[in-house]
Amino acid sequence: MTDLEKIVSLCKRRGFIYSSSEIYGGLAGAWDYGPYGLALKQNIKNLWWKRFVDSKDEMYGMDASILMNPRVWQASGHISGFSDPLSDCEDCKKRFRTDALEKRVCPECGGKLGASRQFNMMFETKIGAMEDSSATVYLRPETAQGMFVNFKNIVDSFHPKIPFGIAQIGKAFRNEITPRDFIFRTREFEQMEIEYFVKESEWKDSFEYWRKEMLGWMSDIGLSKKSIHELEVPDDERAHYSKRTIDFEFDYPFGRKELYGLAYRTDFDLSAHSSESTVDLSYYDEETKERFIPNVIEPSFGVDRTVLAVLLSAYTEDELGGAKPDHDNPVARTAKGGSREKRVYLKLKPSLAPVKVAVFPLLKNKPELMEKAREVYAMLKKEIPQIAFDDNGNIGKRYRRQDEIGTPFCVTIDFETLDNDTVTIRYRDDGRQERSKISEISSFITEKLKTN
Ligand code: ATP
Asked: Does 167 lie in the same domain as 28?
């Protein structure tokens, strides 16, 4: 299994993820995405949107504000119930989530834990200039409620036939007692969520449909079947609104933990908002002439936990090149001078890779090669914007750099290119190289991106 430290260090070294406000010592539970981390995250979100929103006729995308009327959280039960039990250690004064502890003693110093009390995880802030309680608002702890409170707007504007869904990608904030494990448990994170509205009699079929859709998605992004485990959440551990929940757990290096959740939320949310707001949130079915409050199936995906699972699954160490190294010589020279080197690469699906193709001139000090490489780069960039140009160091070093960020293809411009307009394409996973016509590279790579 991949060591988490190796991922954290690769992410920092190669510009994926940094700790937040690092020059001031960071901030617990907050991380910043650099250029490649952002590109990977955007690729994940775009793929998700394409798969679950754009390719389905009954899905409506939206983007609600993070700050909402506080009565939303009253109705949803978050003000009274969105809390974790916590205890303070009487000796070292550290704070822990009581439900996550195996024994009732401090896991750090073995000291005695104080009484357990409930800690609400919503971040509060004040809105406007007045400092009274009516001006308290919350940073949303989930994107779901933004979709429930817009249910009537979507129905009135689009008259969807049931079943239909509302989907949203956006930030959520939770004042986690113990943020940990890199981007797994943070205080600010992103969710991709769907609220799928169905007739009560159809919830079981719909639940099964979404279970399969979620498994299909996990396979699409390259998570192996054996690293995913479905956990039927028992009655006494489910959230107050749910009658059935499956957690999709992933084998992280720090244990088998929740990646995604699938919940049957019944009509809890629409009913609660109907009674709190006194606005009728029922649905009129033109076909059956019935009026009812729809039931909801909710597939919920954490973006950051996806990024982490994808990176852990893609991280690979192997050896490429000539002879096998002996144990005191990790870079073994063969008779022909070839070498077999240890390397690290990210075996990312091309569709997720932050850079799809890197273009190199064989030698930096040959103007004719530089000019041709720039020309090929400019031509490809029009079709494949996620592209890099690298003329630093020798070709071997450039390959290693691209391997570490998961670039699936590298194109090298050499002297033969100047004669016959062909280049070498080098494949990340096995280091294989092929000669190809410049005019064919773009369609070749675009095709790979569609199917992978
Ligand atoms: P956990 O039990 O791990 O705290 P949860 O059951 O509270 O998670 P949900 O409320 O179901 O999580 O949230 C939906 C999804 O949002 C989760 O499956 C996860 O992918 C993501 N998520 C929740 N909390 C966090 C967090 N603190 N940091 C990063 N992602 C999170």
From this structure: yes
pLDDT tens-place string over residues 297-350: 999 999 999 999 999 999 999 988 654 444 444 444 443 445 677 899 999 999
Ligand 1 mean position, distance from CA 199 (Å)? 27
Residues 294 and 336 in one domain: no
Angle at 75 between CA 70 and CA 78, to 5 degrees: 75
> By residue range, what is the domain housing residue 11?
4-68+138-312
pLDDT in tens, 224-254: 999 999 999 999 989 888 999 999 999 999 9
User: Which of 41, 221, 305 has most ligand 1 atoms within 8 Å of CB, for mutation?
Assistant: 305
Residues 145 and 252 occupy one common structural domain: yes
Rg (CA), the chain: 26
In percent, the amount of the chain with pLDDT more than 90 equals 81
Give the number of domains in the chain.
2
> Residue 289 phi/psi, 5° resolution?
60, 35
Distance 254 CA to ligand 1 centre (A): 16
Structure tokens belonging to residue 451: 């199917």
Please give the distance, rounded to the nearest whole angstrom, from the Cα atom of residue 135 to the centre of ligand 1: 28
Q: Is the CB of 250 under 6 A from ligand 1?
A: no
Q: Which of 278, 312, 346 is the last residue of a domain?
A: 312
Nearest to 244 by CA among 252, 253, 235: 235
Q: Is 417 in the pocket of ligand 1 (CB under 6 A)?
A: no
Does a structural domain hold residue 96? no
Rounded to the nearest whole angstrom, what is the distance from the C-alpha of residue 252 to the centroid of ligand 1? Answer: 14
Whether residues 60 and 149 fall in one domain:
yes
